[in-house]
Amino acid sequence: MGVKIIPVTDKRLLRRFIEVPYTVHLNGRLWIPPLRVERAQNFSPRHNDFFRRAEVALFIAEKDGRDAGRISAQIDPLLSAAGMADVGHFGCLSAIDDSEVFAALTGAAEEFLRERGKTRMLGPFSMSIKEEMGLLVEGFDTPPMLLMGHDPEYAGPHLERLGLVKEKDVYAYLTDLTAPMSKTGTAMLRRPPAPNVVLRGLDFSNYENEIQTLVDIFNDAWSGNWGFVPMTQAETSALGKHLRLLLDKRLVRFAEVDGQAAGFIVVLPNLNEAIRDLRGNLFPLGWVKLLWRLKVRGARSARVPLMGVRRGISGTMQGAAMPLHLIASVWDAAMEMGFRQVELSWILEENLPMRRILEKFGARRYKTYRIYGKSL
After folding, report:
1. Domain boundaries, the chain
2. CA atoms of 41 and 47, how far apart (whole Å)
3. Which residues sit opposite 117 in a β-bridge?
4. Were 58 and a residue from 8, 116, 276, 366 both cysteine, which residue would form a disulfide, CB within 3.0 to 4.6 Å?
């Protein structure tokens, strides 16, 4: 039998779509099943602003009477501001090791985008550049951190045989907080900031304004970077809501220059540690295990998903040193809280200044995620 492509048109089919990766990775040793309740919210316009502003199509591939893969195709109107009005994205890619399935899925995404006037397809983005980005092509031997993807080794070669080529690589760096640091790295982290630079923690009593400040810096810092789309007000509100339970004021730092916030860093506990064996379910007892692991046992790994320095000072000596001061300000707190490893991701491959900083204090590039492109 051939491959049948099924567009997702109702809640029943959406549940099937969400379930596909759990089948694809059934025997996978390192893939960590996300919580189904969280996945359902992620694909809900009520909870995810992306589905309210973008045009999205979801497809399931069925072969031999079984669901064998899935893919999304999406058009974000905000890409025009990034100079990518001709671009459509694909994402949510998950499929068995079958060339026919991959061909049918990518063909469905290409057709959807082509019919709507797009001339280039980039991905995977699940769903936007601010969510899961890229396909894992290096670093298959370790489990993914919080909000990071984990793909089978065969996925990249299947895409490449279908004519998709590398557009951009983004990296994940890993730091072992227990390993001795080089003298150079230690000196860099212990270097005090300039007298007019003040580092402070998150003020939970002013939480909404703090999140707005963080996003303002983030949007400014990343503006002009490849493919970047600013975070909307709706996304800002959702970010604040989703992060509140995970944020610890000791692991969030703002850098102020002459009293004005100019940089920030956010470290989050690796939730994947706590949910690894829950098989995507919080019921009947999964929520008890999750709370105990987070609040009592605590995670031993963490991730830096958000960091930025305003562009206006990034080219100055103060701006160049600010990432170091921000990292140093949270590293000691992370160790005191029991964290042993911290991932910093994603780092664009051309971001050589940040890569050099990370490598000087002992971080190593341990995963590569590839964004593929294809002319339509």
Report:
1. 3-169, 175-369
2. 6
3. none
4. 8
Q: Where are the beta strands (DSSP E) in 237-356?
A: 252-257, 260-269, 301-309, 341-348
Q: Is the pLDDT of residue 278 over 50?
A: yes
**Partners of 60 in beta bridges:** 6, 70
Do domains 3-169 and 175-369 share one topology? The answer is: yes
**Residue 3 has what pLDDT?**
94
Q: In terms of Cα–Cα distance, which of 164, 118, 85, 145 is closest to 341?
A: 145
Ranking 141-155, 224-238, 298-312 by mean pLDDT, the lowest is: 224-238
Q: Tokens 């399931």, residue? A: 60
Tokens in use for 354?
């940040």
pLDDT (average), residues 281-310: 68
pLDDT for position 1: 62
Expressed in angstroms, the distance from the first to the final Cα of the chain is: 28
Class of domain 3-169: alpha beta
What per-residue confidence (pLDDT) applies to 164?
98
Structure tokens at 175: 């730091």
DSSP letter assigned to residue 127: S
Interacting residues of 374 by C-beta distance below 8 A, sequence separation 6+: 110, 120, 121, 162, 163, 164, 165
What is the CA angle 85-42-219, rounded to 5?
50
The closest alpha carbon to 240, from 270, 279, 273, 210, belongs to 210
CA–CA dist 372, 169 (Å, integer):
9
Question: Contact at 8 Å (CB) between 138 and 345?
Answer: no
pTM tops 0.70: yes
Percentage of the chain modeled with pLDDT above 90 = 55
Total Cβ atoms within 10 A of residue 2: 9
**CATH code for the structural domain at 175-369:** 3.40.630.30
pLDDT at 87: 95
Instruction: Give alpha helix (H) positions in 5-89.
Output: 11-24, 36-42, 50-53
Indicate the SS3 state at residue 240: helix
Amino acid residing at 207: Y
Q: Comparing C-alpha atoms, which of 167, 163, 114 is closest to residue 376?
A: 114
* Alpha carbon separation from 81 to 54, 223, 244, 296, 308 (Å, rounded): 14, 10, 30, 45, 20
